[in-house]
Amino acid sequence: MEGVKLVEKVVIVPEMPTNRRRIFLSNLDLPLVAYQESVSFYDPPENKISFSESYNTLYRALRSLLVPYDFFAGRLVPALEDNSRLEIDCNGAGIVVAAARTDTRLSQLGGLFAPKPDLKHLVAFLREEGEDEMEFKDKPLLYIQLTQFGCGSLALASRYNHCVLDGAAARDFEKNLAAFTRGDDLVIVPNPDRTIFKARNPPRISHPHHEYSRPSEIRENLFSVGGKRCTNVMHSRIPHNTTHLIHIPPQRIASLKMAALKDGKLKKCTTFHAIAAKVWKARSIATKIHDEVCSTMLFPVDVRRIVVPPVPIGFAGNALVPGFARASVRELKDKEDSYIVRKVQEGVERFDDEYVRSGIDWLEVHRGRPCNENSFSLVAWFRLGLEEDVFSWGKLKYATPVVLKPGLVFLLPGLEGDGGLNICLDLPDDQVDEFHRLLME
């Protein structure tokens, strides 16, 4: 991609004063004090509005939206009741928004279905100089960059602190932002109250929680406010490799589901169950984990409707809890497809209110993080439904993460109308070749 040039960079604050308040961060939020980056692409506006009109519309929409989303305009600070934890001070300090241009045409980027190095240019103006040394209280919780391509197409990139929102709540935010750019009202009223996920006093751990690992002595405690860094340290020991994209056509998805149901031991098998089981098996074998080692696959489970009482509509926080499937590599090699799929299904079915509460209490006691021992996380990006968003400049065309962090595997949508999926993973070339072979056999 040719050089991306900054048009302007501004701080956006709520358009009217908001009440100063503190927002409690739950044990589901605190391990996620890390920035997430994603980018959405749009065709040239059909209504022929100028780029200046587009980014000024975005500014106005954000000023209005930061009134109900006042917490996004705040900063992370030590909690008043427990200064070993963080909370959000809704102080109206604002967010950072950049407008940029490039002569590159969108078509020159090639496929837009997965992370790639060129996408980093689309968040080029969303990092502060010396940011890694900045205090939490000085870091905005949200950065946005709108970039115009030489062909008139647009890219809307966001960089936000994951402790504020999970994927489902971020989707609601984008729907509301799209509505405000069109001059419409809120689609979903955000509710950032996370007290429903407070740990019990005293904590009661009633289940084993293999989805979490205890912090080691040499690693930063993610609940701590002692450090200045705000980077994702999960899976940090895994070396960086090359991002690969593997397409799974709809016929292959259908055959995997049929294979899982063939012996009659399962009543049903969804697309996610079938793909997750195959990815788990293929990745565990391809990465040459010893047969006797237990391999763990994590995947987000939305507990909004699982906890009692249910989380209020519009919940703006983290309610995606790591589910897990766990088995020895030997089992994954030797057992039939239905057995592996069943392990994935059990990872969802074990969740009820007590299991969620027990996990929150486990985190309260151990101050741990998602399991990082012979594990990886599978994220079904294709389930977010972002393609429904319509901004003033047009309907979203594609959306993708900007980078793939080590230890993550993304399930991304395939080509429009194709019905397939793309698997995006980060492995050495020899291992990804073996993964692909196992996936297709």
List the helices and strands and how they pair.
Blueprint: E1 4-12, E2 22-24, E3 35-42, H1 51-65, E4 75-78, E5 86-89, E6 95-102, E7 142-148, E8 154-161, H2 167-181, E9 212-213, E10 242-248, H3 250-261, H4 271-286, E11 294-302, E12 320-328, H5 329-334, H6 337-349, H7 353-366, E13 369-370, E14 375-380, E15 390-391, E16 394-401, E17 408-413, E18 421-427, H8 429-440
Parallel strand pairs: 6-7, 11-14, 14-17
Antiparallel strand pairs: 1-6, 2-5, 3-8, 3-16, 4-5, 7-8, 9-13, 10-18, 11-12, 15-16, 17-18
Helix pairs in contact: 1-2, 3-4, 4-6, 4-8
Kindly list the characteristics that best describe this protein.
8 helices, single chain, 23% helix, six-stranded mixed β-sheet, 441 residues, 25% strand, seven-stranded mixed β-sheet
Helix run count:
8
List SSEs in N-to-C order.
EEEHEEEEEHEEHHEEHHHEEEEEEH
Shape: globular
Residues in helix, %? 10-25%
Q: How far apart lie the N and C ends? A: 37 Å
Approximate strand percentage: 15-25%
Biggest sheet character: 7 strands, mixed
Radius of gyration: 22 Å
The helix-and-strand class reads alpha+beta
List unreliable stretches of 5+ residues.
217-222, 224-240
**Main sheet: strand order:** 1-6-7-8-3-16-15
The whole-number mean of residue pLDDT values reads 91
Number of strands: 18
